[in-house]
């Protein structure tokens, strides 16, 4: 190898190293940049350490990690996403485990530089835990780390499960409103989430929630369902979530897109999908 070839190689290596350093410093910079997180699912945000502590098997932890930590989630099927939630739900069937899981999730967000977090979860009952106790446990986790003396403010959005019938959903709303009276500084809003192939949006129920002072942040257009997307947009939530099939280029209808542009409803999402969504505007 002659001098010219050697210096060429050196320059190449230097450029590669510089690229690497730049990348590292950007990561560090981004990590410490103060952030707000407006669309975090409690059951989709657990780390492997807490899953292990809560008694999860190694293969379930690997599956959970694979699906929640991959940057490109476009290949994940809906079923795979719900399998992830199932793993977390199985690990949090007691008040203590719900509390520990909530605390761990908030600690992770603090480490990532999040200063304002809106955590969302669906109240559920288990053999030894009522829906009220589930909510109390999440709030206990929030209260242990959130507030003016801490590095983060955490608010809670409680969800109505799409799989539930009208009566169960109405009961859930009553519980959410009752708990909001008790914790008005923490419980701020209501969501409609779960498997988008199940159930349908009930505008009257969410109107009732809105009349009682809850903000509405509704999962919308996660699958192609123009009728429901239209009803949600007409209702006019404070925010919508995901909106994957809202734009006509991604399977949405022009009518809904025009309605969305008129209503100007903010979209809350995971960063990579938000970026794709913004790019499509
Ligand atoms: Zn979501």
TrEMBL record:
Gene3D superfamilies: Metal-dependent hydrolases (3.20.20.140). Residues 34-243 form the Adenosine deaminase domain. Keywords: Hydrolase, Metal-binding, Nucleotide metabolism, Zinc. One of its GO terms (biological process) is adenosine catabolic process. GO terms for molecular function: adenosine deaminase activity; metal ion binding. Its cofactor is Zn(2+). InterPro entries: A_deaminase_dom, Ado/ade_deaminase, Metal_Hydrolase. The keyword Cell inner membrane does not apply. The keyword Kinase does not apply. It catalyses: N(6)-methyl-AMP + H2O + H(+) = IMP + methylamine. Belongs to the metallo-dependent hydrolases superfamily. Adenosine and AMP deaminases family. This is Adenosine deaminase domain-containing protein. It comes from Phaedon cochleariae.
